[in-house]
Design brief:
The protein is of the alpha/beta class. Helix content is about 40%, strand content about 15%. The chain has a single domain, classed as Alpha-Beta Barrel (TIM Barrel). It has nine helices and twelve strands. The strands form three sheets. The protein has an eight-stranded parallel barrel, surrounded by five helices. A two-stranded antiparallel ribbon has the order 5-6. α1 runs parallel beside α9, α6 packs across α7 and α8 packs across α9. The radius of gyration is 19 Å and the shape is globular. The relative contact order is 0.14.
């Protein structure tokens, strides 16, 4: 079982010393990995609906200072020695495919194989337009094409590709990632996300609190897993090739215990509830869990991490 926590890319904790302190503390406490989120530039006016809040409003808004994701991953990699690095998630269409493949391969090579690529197709149309990304309406196709480009470049000695947006041949692409291939965790809970996972993902990486596609009870999550297994079989892949991961955006005590149709909501309540939910999902096949343990200050964040280690991690390992 792998357990991770989040490293900040926005807000008051992104100063270099704070970021290094959180990452090195995570490594010292025995967290297996840290997650690093992704936004390049947030427009001041957003009409697009954020998927993970009931109101549809983006919780941190446009005003917070933000670090670029992949540069932050490289920075954390240099400050640590064994901590895993998970992009959570990379909005794939926001960066050119070949350049992205090169940056990711370089990070994995220099970190000695510690990178996992969490991916998403994106939700904010205004951000796509602001940064000059490919058309928002074609983001699903773009995401799939970009990932096929990455796999081709990472794995082939004589890579070549001819797609809608990307074409190359007769090129050299070295060094390859330190890993045979950088693992891809596919974020999202919708039908397209499940199909994308079944097609080429190494793991499904949902968040339980999507109001449109909730995975917030054991019954609902098991139903999502059943759909994924069916789609994986239809894609002609071995079911064991697609793992299960689970992301939780809050720390214990942040959400009071709740129920849905008489069943307790996952990851609500205190530390004992979290430990029980981790065990229950592990029995279903989830092998990696990560949590947002931020506090309002660096000291509060470190305290949250230490308490989580003692009150949750120690109970499930």
């Amino acid at each position: 079982m792998q357990i991770g926590c989040s490293a900040p890319t926005s807000g008051p904790l992104i100063a270099p010393d704070s970021l290094v302190r959180i990452a090195t503390e995570a490594e010292m406490l025995g967290f297996d990995y840290v997650t690093i989120s992704d936004h390049v530039m947030i427009p001041k006016s957003i009409a697009s609906r954020y998927p993970y809040s009931e109101s549809g409003e983006f919780p941190s808004g446009a005003g917070a200072a933000r670090l670029e994701q992949l540069a932050t991953v490289a920075f954390i990699a240099a400050a640590t020695s064994k901590l895993g690095l998970v992009t959570s998630v990379t909005v794939v269409p926001h960066r050119p495919a070949v350049l992205t493949a090169k940056m990711l391969a370089t990070i994995d090579y220099l970190s000695k194989g510690r990178l996992t690529l969490g991916i998403g197709a994106g939700w904010c149309k205004e951000e796509f337009e602001a940064i000059g990304a490919p058309p928002f309406e074609d983001r699903g196709h773009v995401t799939d094409e970009w990932m096929m480009v990455c796999k081709e470049l990472w794995s082939k000695d004589d890579p070549k590709f001819a797609g809608k947006y990307v074409t190359f041949s007769d090129v050299v692409f070295t060094p390859k990632p330190a890993q045979k291939s950088i693992p891809i965790w596919v974020g999202g809970e919708s039908g397209p996300a499940l199909r994308r996972t079944a097609k080429y993902g190494d793991a499904w990486y949902p968040i339980g609190t999507n109001p449109q596609f909730p995975m917030d009870t054991l019954t609902r999550f098991k139903a999502g897993v059943a759909k994924l297994r069916d789609l994986t079989a239809r894609a002609g892949r071995d079911l064991s090739a697609v793992g299960l991961t689970y992301r939780v955006s809050s720390n214990p005590e942040a959400q009071p215990k709740g129920t849905v149709n008489g069943e307790r909501k996952l990851f609500t309540g205190g530390a004992a509830d979290y430990a029980g939910d981790i065990r229950a999902l592990h029995d279903v096949g989830v092998t990696s869990f990560d949590f947002g343990l931020f506090g309002p200050t660096l000291a509060a964040t470190l305290d949250n991490m230490r308490r989580f280690k003692d009150e949750v991690m120690a109970k499930v390992r």
